[in-house]
Every structure is written in C-alpha cells, then in structure tokens.
Amino acid sequence: QVQLVQSGAEVKKPGASVKVSCKASGYTFTSYDMNWVRQATGQGLEWMGWMNPNSGDTGYAQRFQGRVTMTRDTSINTAYMELSSLTSDDTAVYYCARGEMGIGSSFDIWGQGTMVTVSS
Amino acid sequence: DIQMTQSPSSLSASVGDRVTITCRTSQSISNYLNWYQQKPGKAPKLLISAASSLQGGVPSRFSGSGSGTDFTLTISSLQPEDFATYYCQQSYSTRAFGPGTKVDIK
Predict the structure, then answer these.
(1) What is the pLDDT of residues A36-85, one digit of tens each?
(2) Which residues of chain B does A40 touch, with a Cβ-Cβ cutoff of 8 Å?
(3) b/e per residue, A14-51, with b = 16+ CB within 10 A?
(4) Torsion over CA of B64, B69, B70 and B73, rounded to 10 degrees?
(5) A64 — contact with chain B (CB < 8 Å)?
(6) Contact present, B79 and B42 (Cβ < 8 Å)
(7) What is the SS3 assignment for B4-19?
(8) For residue B23, how far is the Cα from the chain centroid?
(9) I need a labelling partner for A41 at 20 to 30 A (CA). Which of A109, A112, B101, B102 fits?
(10) Strand B62-67 to strand A68-73: parallel, antiparallel, or no bridges (unpaired)?
C-alpha cells in the first residue's frame, strides 16, 4: 500500500542540525512532490517547504529559508529534511506528506511523524 | 503571504449535532482549499480537497463548500469518532494551514 515511513525520534542540542528521512513505497516516488510540515506540542500545523523528487527543485517557507534543506535519493525512494541551527523552538513533530505537483495540490499521504527534541 | 483564519477556534458539541467550521483567506484563492482532520498523536488526514471534493473513504456526513475567500466545512451529524481538530489549508500559493478548530464533546 501507499505509505511514507519516517526515521525515529531525535534529541539534539541547541545549535546542532537534524536530518529526518521519509521513505516512500507503493507509488512512483518521482511523480509527487514531498512536503514537510511540523507541529509543536499543542500547536497547529506549520508548512515548511516542498521538494520535487524528480528534478530536485525545492521551495521553502520564508521563515525557514537559509536553515532548511530538502533533498532526496531516488535510488531508495527516500526524501530528507535537514534543519540547522536548532533552538528549543524547533522542538516539534516533523511530518512528511505527499502532494500532487503544482497549484491546487492536497497532502493525501502522511508519514507517521518524527519527534525532534532540542534540549541542552 | 496569504493569511488564513478559522472560526471558531474551538467548539463543544453533542453526538448528532450539525457542526459548521469557517475558513477565511486574506485574498481570493479560487477553490484551492483543503480540509484535514487530526486526532491526538496521529498524523493529519485529508478529508476534502478543492473546497468540496470528498476524499475516498470519508463519510458523506462531511461536506465542504465555498470559493474565493470564504469556505465552510460541515459535519451534518456529529459522530463520536469526529471529535478532533480540523485544519484548512490553501494550495493557491505558498502552502499554509489555518490555525485549527478543536471539536470536543459537550
């Protein structure tokens, strides 16, 4: 079945970086965008950016520009999201979500989420 | 960036109630509006895309309407499994979610 499986929970110190993976199965990886969304405890959903796994093109939310990098390895159908210069405000669950390419897309398949805790 | 609001931010309702949640955008987005349901500890689930298109497997008591800047999610008869938080999301430009509406038991 179509699914996205994310890497496990991470604990990082302030100033460090974290890289979360998202392995896709059950569909053609390069035919859909991959989006990343995060959610701090008790808070709403925050879209971080998207990547086209076919071309590698990316688009990031302005507040994460310069701090987030989205990449992929098409040989293993896996997308990655790396966030640098972590602070306690980055403590959150990070989700990958599949989206159709282009305007009007919705996120129809979601990963299970990866908890990232930033603490000294 | 397009700003999004949802109202109410929370509501208490009983099983069988009709529930309406509103989402407004700061500029016209045509019908590029999606609705998600999220339960505690779970990933969001897509309910409705393109303002009114019900996803496969989603009960018909859920419906969506609207275009331009004003959108509505309606649950015609609230069921126990519908107690959750609901988010709208615009897909017209840089993706963004509304702040959410929590539906809990009265």
Answers:
(1) 999 999 999 999 999 999 999 999 999 999 999 999 999 999 999 999 99
(2) none
(3) eeeebebbbbbeeeebeebbbbbbbbeeeeebbbbbbb
(4) 30
(5) no
(6) no
(7) EEEECCEEEECCCCCE
(8) 7
(9) A109
(10) unpaired
Chain B within 8 Å of A45 (Cβ-Cβ)?
yes
Instruction: Determine contact: A47 vs chain B, CB below 8 A.
Output: yes
Kindly list the distances between the CA atom of residue A17 and the CA atoms of A22, A81, B80, in Å, as whole numbers in the listed order. 17, 10, 41
Distance CA A72, CA A89 (A): 26
For tokens 């569909």, the residue is A27
Q: What is the pLDDT of residues B40-99, one digit of tens each?
A: 999 999 999 999 999 999 999 999 999 999 999 999 999 999 999 999 999 999 899 999
Beta strands in chain A (DSSP E): 3-6, 10-12, 18-25, 33-39, 46-51, 58-60, 68-73, 78-83, 92-99, 107-110, 114-118
C-alpha A84/C-alpha A66 separation (Å) is 9
